[in-house]
Specification:
Elements (H helix, E strand, L loop, with lengths): L1 H15 L6 E8 L4 E8 L15 E5 L6 H18 L7 E5 L13 E2 L3 E2 H16 L9 E6 L1 H12 L6 E5 L11 H8 L13 H13 L21 H7 L4 H4 L10 E7 L7 H13 L4 E6 L8 H16 L10 H8 L1 E4 L6 E6 L5 E8 L4 E5 L1 H6 L1 E2 L6 E9 L4 E8 L2
């Protein structure tokens, strides 16, 4: 298997050799971190620095632990040929690879921390402003999305939940989405540290290093050595006081704060053979979304692992975000009036069983609609009469769908709904 993977990587690298770099290195000064930061950008096909009339959607990528933006850009450069086959719409966006490394630890977890610095603000404020100011993109959330893998899956989910006014969609790929669920990780940490109390936890072992790095983000203590409050006691039990601090940045606890405002579109991937045992907490996160009346598209792959599954999950996540942003029809004049239109479109009932109805304050301006599957394919073109009388969805399979409402002036409003049988 390793030989096959190596051969594939060689072929992809050879295919991209000699061509212009897809991912361009950029630097800017982050006020939140008080330092210069590197990021990489992939320009969309046809992008022109001088043509400010044409605008493009943005997807921000947050990498996982034990790596950095430079290494990810190098890997993606080799895989660009594969991406053009699996998710070609990636190259119709301004795709940005942010840096979340925090050496000597495994990563920042994109969280404001006295140990690592204000990494959440660096992404949500500094980098966001850098992209909006220096690239031909939109000023509103309808054309912004965020995606991440592993630590970046956590970071992208947390940032999207805390800043829903900035993003329309989020794809979390093998991310820890319930960071205080220790049932599966605790035995692994204890085994790496002797397997018997009293424990003296040190920065060694892959799972223990991960826990220390998370503690550096969620419970730093520069007076300790290592400079964190570790969430596991010397007796091998969970320290509930430290856990309460971790919960402040726990994605599953942030869902309730959406409160029906700026609804996000969610895509969640996790593998059943994930080495960090993340599937149960991803399942709990999806259940919590459902509890608060939020739908998501999910892919729980029984054979998926943590790292190599990225070859599968990344195209799925990108294709989902592209369909949510509705990049097939871009109007450079979209602004506040169009956002108001979208806010006045409402689908009911949701979930729906037999018929789906659209309530809108803008009927005179609506032309027709398009029914889209969770994979981004067109299921049916719907006339205005059908919208008025109710859309027959009896023949749809259970699952998540999008209804794209097309306006006469070129604007589109995308609404999600769940079909149940």
């Amino acid at each position: 298997m390793k030989r096959i993977i190596f051969s594939l990587a060689f072929i992809l690298a050879f295919a991209s050799a000699g061509s212009a770099k897809q991912f361009v290195e950029k630097k800017f000064f982050s006020q939140s971190l008080n330092q210069e930061k590197t990021y990489f950008v992939s320009y969309p096909t046809g992008y022109s620095e001088t043509d400010t009339t044409k605008k493009y959607p943005v997807i921000v990528f947050l990498h996982g632990a034990s790596t950095n933006a430079t290494d990810i850009a190098t890997m993606f450069e080799s895989y660009s040929f594969l991406f053009k086959l699996g998710c070609p719409n990636l190259f119709n966006t301004i795709f940005v690879i942010a840096d979340g490394s925090a050496a000597p630890y495994l990563g920042s977890f994109y969280t404001n921390s006295t140990l690592y610095g204000n990494f959440e603000d660096y992404i949500a404020t500094d980098l966001y402003s850098e992209i909006k100011t220096n690239y031909h993109t939109y000023s509103h959330r309808a054309k912004w999305a965020i995606i991440g893998h592993s630590m970046g899956g956590y970071g992208s989910m947390k940032i999207a939940l805390k800043h829903p006014e900035k993003f329309i969609g989020i794809s979390s790929l093998s991310g820890p989405l319930h960071t205080t669920y220790y049932n599966d990780l605790l035995p692994l940490v204890l085994a790496e540290n002797g397997g018997a109390a009293p424990y003296n936890f040190t920065y060694q072992g892959s799972i223990t290093k991960l826990m220390f790095s998370m503690a550096g983000a969620f419970s730093p203590n520069t007076g300790n050595e290592p400079p964190v409050n570790f969430p596991i006691t010397s007796a091998g039990t969970i320290d509930t006081q430290i856990v309460s601090v971790w919960n402040e940045n726990n994605p599953i606890n942030l869902i309730k704060d959406l409160d029906g405002k700026n609804n996000l579109s969610f895509f969640i991937y996790c593998g059943g053979k994930d080495e960090y045992k993340l599937l149960p907490e991803n399942e709990m996160f999806v259940d919590s979304l459902t509890k608060y009346g939020l739908t998501c598209t999910k892919k729980f792959d029984p054979e998926g692992d943590h790292v190599t599954s990225l070859a599968t999950s990344f195209p799925l996540g990108i294709n989902f975000l592209y369909s949510v942003m509705d990049t097939s029809k871009i109007d450079s004049g979209v602004g506040i009036p169009e956002i108001a239109k979208a806010a006045n479109d409402y689908l009911y009932p949701n979930p729906a069983f037999n018929q789906l109805f659209l309530q809108s304050a803008n009927w005179a301006e609506i032309e027709n609609a398009t029914l889209i599957s969770s994979q981004g394919s067109i299921v049916e073109n719907i006339s205005k009469d059908q919208l008025t009388n109710g859309v027959d969805i009896n023949n749809l399979h259970s699952g998540y769908y999008l209804l794209k409402v097309n306006y006469k002036d070129g604007f589109v409003s995308v609404k999600k709904f769940t079909k149940k049988n």
